[in-house]
Amino acid sequence: MPGADAQALNDFLTSVALRMRFGSDGRPGLESAPGGGLVEQVVGRLLAEVVRAEAEGRWNRLKACSNEECRWAFYDASKNHSGRWCTMQVCGARHKMRAYRERTSGS
Predict the structure, then answer these.
(1) How many CA atoms lie within 13 Å of 20's alpha carbon, on the beta-carbon side?
(2) In Å, how far are 42, 47, 58, 70 from 10, measured between CA atoms?
(3) DSSP string, 14-44
(4) CA-CA distance, 62 to 78, in Å (whole number)?
(5) CA separation, residue 79 to residues 8, 61, 75, 99 (Å)
(6) 22-72 confidence digits (pLDDT tens)
(7) Is the pLDDT score of 1 beyond 50?
(8) Given this model, what pLDDT does residue 80 score?
(9) Exposure string (b/e) for 74-95, b if CB count within 10 Å is 16 or more?
(10) Which residues are 62's β-sheet partners?
């Protein structure tokens, strides 16, 4: 994440409290600490999932759609980590159609 964006995110995260707890399976995990508002609790849950995904090697599969008008986050489940679109049926198809029109409009 570029510097200014990372700093803005870090500034926001100072309002979120996390705590470590052990699950029924004995594995440690993070969760949102009690207290705070609903937004802080939701962000805390998301942060706990971010830490878990990084620890499990899945964080790099979370991507933003390459469609500039979309930019939704999606999980890249492709074998070679090459996914670019939140959904091929919508954003990917639009990109392919635009590229096709650009290629064929000159002839």
Answers:
(1) 5
(2) 16, 11, 21, 25
(3) TT--EEEEE-TTS-EEEEEPSSS-HHHHHHH
(4) 12
(5) 33, 10, 12, 25
(6) 989 998 888 888 877 888 888 888 888 888 889 888 888 989 999 888 988
(7) no
(8) 92
(9) bebeeeeeebbbbeeeebbeeb
(10) 75
What token pair was written down for 95? 């990109």
Query: What distance in Å separates the CA atoms of residue 84 and residue 64, rounded to the nearest whole number?
Result: 8
Q: Between β-strands 28-32 and 18-22, what pairing exists: parallel, antiparallel or unpaired?
A: antiparallel
Burial profile 44-71: b = 16 or more Cβ within 10 angstroms, e = fewer: beebbeeeeeeeeeeeeeebebebeeee
Report in angstroms the alpha-carbon separations of 15 from 40, 47, 52, 65: 7, 12, 20, 28
Single pTM value for the model: 0.61
CB 88 within 8 A of CB 95: no
Q: How far apart are the first and last CA of the chain?
A: 41
